[in-house]
Amino acid sequence: AQSVTQLGSHVSVSEGALVLLRCNYSSSVPPYLFWYVQYPNQGLQLLLKYTSAATLVKGINGFEAEFKKSETSFHLTKPSAHMSDAAEYFCAVIVSNTGKLIFGQGTTLQVKP
Amino acid sequence: GAVVSQHPSWVICKSGTSVKIECRSLDFQATTMFWYRQFPKQSLMLMATSNEGSKATYEQGVEKDKFLINHASLTLSTLTVTSAHPEDSSFYICSAREVGEYVVNSPLHFGNGTRLTVT
Questions:
Q1: Residue A23 and residue A7: Cα distance in Å, rounded?
Q2: Torsion angle of the four alpha carbons A46, A38, B90, B110, in this order, in degrees rounded to the nearest 10
Q3: Long-range Cβ contact pairs of A47-56 (< 8 A, separation 24 or more)
Q4: What pLDDT digit, counting tens, does each position of A16-37 carry?
Q5: Strands A107-112 and A87-94
Q6: Count of CB atoms within 10 A of residue B109's CB?
Q7: Three-state secondary structure readout of B29-83
Q8: Quick check: A52 pLDDT over 90?
Q9: Tell me, what DSSP letter sits at residue A52?
Q10: What's the rounded Cα separation, in Å, for the pair B13 and B88?
Q11: Contacts within 8 Å (CB) and 24+ apart, B50-53
Q12: How far apart (Å, rounded) are the C-alpha atoms in residues A31 and A29?
């Protein structure tokens, strides 16, 4: 079964510092991976998606993620954190034979001034 | 862009009553809608898959008689929490996939969620 695991339930960075949120996947077939962001009491907003076209994926708000098959990873990065980036981030994978979107445990990003 | 509207955004009800949550795709048609439940500080757990014109498919452990899902049109799916109890208090989020989108690589469009509190 396909799944994703997010390492670190809570990440704290200073404003202007690099953001790195980790996601590893498990899949016997080429996975389709996504990163979503959730602000308090709101739904989810798509940051970016990997669909095998390119291993380095650029998303909105300056985020990007790199698909590394050798490491089964799809980590999310942003060169310089902004206070407005503080939110919950979810890595997700589509289960290929059902179309269901399955989420990782989530990582809370805290940005300190 | 594709917009999913969820209503109400929050609701408080008494134990034993039923609550209906609506999920509408405003500018696209959705063959499939998904319902998720999210407890505080936790991830989204898929409850069921709703397909227009057919019965919903529930995930293991989700009571179908408790959480009634109806997907009567290509733009509307509803989740009814029947005989609600305090343990049903949670954040419920719907999502939709546009008709014709290639399933395996199409993202879901999410509603803003409904905060249900059962007293």
A1: 6
A2: -20
A3: A47/A76, A47/A89, A48/A76, A49/B105, A49/B107, A50/A74, A51/B104, A51/B105, A52/B105
A4: 999 999 999 998 888 889 999 9
A5: antiparallel
A6: 25
A7: CEEEEEEEEECCCCCEEEEEEEECCCCCEECCCCCCCCEEEEEEECCEEEEEECC
A8: no
A9: S
A10: 11
A11: B50/B77
A12: 6
Nearest CB to B32; choose among A44, A46, A99:
A99
B95·A32 Cβ contact <8 A: no
Contacts of B107 in chain A (CB under 8 A): 34, 46, 49, 101
Give CA separation, A76 vs A86, B27, B43, B54, B59, in Å. Answer: 14, 30, 17, 37, 29
Please give the torsion angle defined by the CA atoms of residues A93, A76, A88 and B66, in that order, rounded to the nearest 10 degrees. 0
> pLDDT confidence of A91, banded at 50, 70, 90?
very high
SS3 state of residue A53: coil
Q: Given A94, A105, A106, which is nearest B104 (Cβ)?
A: A94
Name A3's Cβ contacts closer than 8 Å, sequence gap at least 6: A25, A26, A27, A93, A102
Sole residue written with tokens 């999410």: B110
Contact A49 B105 (CB under 8 A): yes
Cis status, amide bond into A79, omega within 30 of 0: no
- Residue-level pLDDT at B91: 95
